[in-house]
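ingest -> validate -> predict -> emit
validate: passed (alphabet ok, no gaps, 359 aa)
predict: started
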Amino acid sequence: MSRHDRITPLLLDPAEIAEWGDEDWDLALRQGRRSGLLPRIEILLARAELFRHVPAAPRAPLQAAHVVAAKHRDDVAREVRAIAAALASLDAPLILLKGAAYAAAGLPPAEGRLFGDIDILVPKESLSEAEALLVAAGWSSAKSDAYDQRYYREWMHELPPLQHERRQTAIDVHHTIVPPTSRFAVDGKRLRDAAVPVGADSRILVLAPADMVLHSAVHLFTEGEFSHGLRDLTDLDLLLRHFAAHDPHFWDQLAERAQSFGLIRPLHYALRFAAILLATPVPPRLLDLGAPGPLGEIVMDALFTRALRPPHPSCADRFSAIALFFLYIRAHYLRMPLGLLMPHLLRKAFHRRVEPAAA
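emit:
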């Protein structure tokens, strides 16, 4: 980890704060805010009975972050109810993904988590009906460009994002967890068949424990976006610890499910970096599952250890921008065959050059 990283050592050992001065706290607050981890840090310190040792200056923003996180969780619950009502006539259950699923199921990653959009999973054959029902309830497409619409509808595993016209909340409607054009083909029906109900409404489900971990692993280690990389890795750490503590067969089920879906490589990176950076107690027998060759491991270690630092300039080194660039290209390479990838990247590069000039 970077010698300027204050967040990862704190996640490993909250007693780290005993050695901190004002500059350390200032840096930790800035890194924690950029990582989306301030509310989780507040909870960690409170549970370790260390919050009383936090100086007054950083105590206020940590307490404010706790209030914001609680508001986020209430908002997610309200939004899930609104989505369920909008899709009540859909002949399929409402399956929540990622953060909304953690909140609905009362899982540890929901505590102190800040939420963005809400992700749901519906059958591919129900996408059009689900979209029509959501539009009728006040959501509309957040993508107006014709190319973007085609990109999502033909090549991606989800509809173009939908945004509520009044509340400005966003929904991503998935039919599986990876693009159909990607190197990892995942049958959405298998995910739906294994999903489990949560709460009082039997129509609201979440993915099975192993599938939930695999989705989190695929999201973090194949999509090339790391603005919340460390937060997402802490999600994985908390999920793994929770499920392993409640089911002695969880690790074997996770390995078996990953192999059956062809997701052992993303799982390998998830387990490896959770163990390396957050000391997640992964069984040694699983740490080599899906590993690349020795040279590949060295290269990916160099890339991911930089990408999974707090996304703050103080944590970057001279190779960080290069690492993020290569992971961005890798994500697109995994997502699309070259015949689609090259025109897509060229178009994105062109638009990035044109849009600032137009503004």
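The domain at 7-358 is CATH 3.30.460.40 (Beta Polymerase; domain 2).
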